[in-house]
Write a structure and sequence with these properties.
5 strands, alpha/beta, 11% strand, globular, five-stranded parallel β-sheet, Arc Repressor Mutant, subunit A
């Protein structure tokens, strides 16, 4: 990846130690990180940094403030820049609280640090979603308990179900097109049809619905 193609990660929240170590790790792995980090989302949006289209906010909690921060982002800055929540663990309560605010991804900080790198690439460059394994497992357990296990009659075609599964795996439209040997235009048509049939308007809502209804598999 050339320097001009490198994604930008904005580190927000967490302890002062965390805001020092994480940027060093990201830069070492070819991800641009501004010199200034911020303790809260309010500080971030009040700063002079202007998120670019390949950027992503890595929101690290050190208290329950992370959840109000997520809510604030999505209400005030929806669509401005994707957000990956870096959670201290993948417990049921933490994951459920974070998912209320539809982050583009969640990573359990107790897992491999490469998960953060993969999340940045998948969310900021490919436009997908990313949930580390333990968080995805927790989500699956929670949604299984509240779901009847029966897929609603959304009248999704077999090909549309394939597309949803590949979207869940984090593939972009171009990647899905290569996997299914179809044109990117055809995949975009499938995605538009999926959104219409399921009555959702973004990928995060679709992935939550797909998990709840058992449409995707881990």
């Amino acid at each position: 990846m050339s320097p001009q193609d490198a994604p930008t990660a904005y580190v927000v929240g967490g302890s002062a130690y965390h805001r020092t170590v994480l940027p060093h790790f990201l830069r070492h792995n070819g991800i641009e990180v501004p010199k200034t980090t911020h303790g809260t989302i309010d500080q971030f949006f009040a700063s002079e940094h202007h998120p670019n289209k390949k950027g992503v906010i890595l929101l690290s909690p050190h208290s329950d403030r992370v959840y109000s921060d997520l809510r604030g982002i999505l209400r005030a800055k929806k669509g401005c820049i994707p957000v990956v929540a870096l959670l201290p663990k993948s417990s049921r309560s933490i994951v459920q609280s974070a998912m209320q605010y539809d982050p583009n991804g969640c990573v359990d900080m107790g897992e491999s640090p490469t998960d953060i790198l993969e999340a940045v690439e998948m969310v900021s460059i490919e436009g997908g979603t990313y949930f580390s394994q333990s968080i995805a497992s927790t989500l699956a357990q929670v949604t299984h308990e509240v779901s009847t296990g029966k897929i609603k009659n959304y009248k999704l075609s077999g090909r549309e179900l394939d597309v949803i599964q590949l979207m869940w795996e984090g593939q972009s439209s171009k990647q899905i097109a290569r996997t299914l040997h179809r044109s990117p235009k055809t995949i975009e048509h499938h995605r538009a049809s999926i959104y219409r049939k399921t009555d959702v308007d973004n990928i995060v809502m679709l992935m939550k619905l797909a998990l709840k209804e058992g449409i995707v598999t881990l």
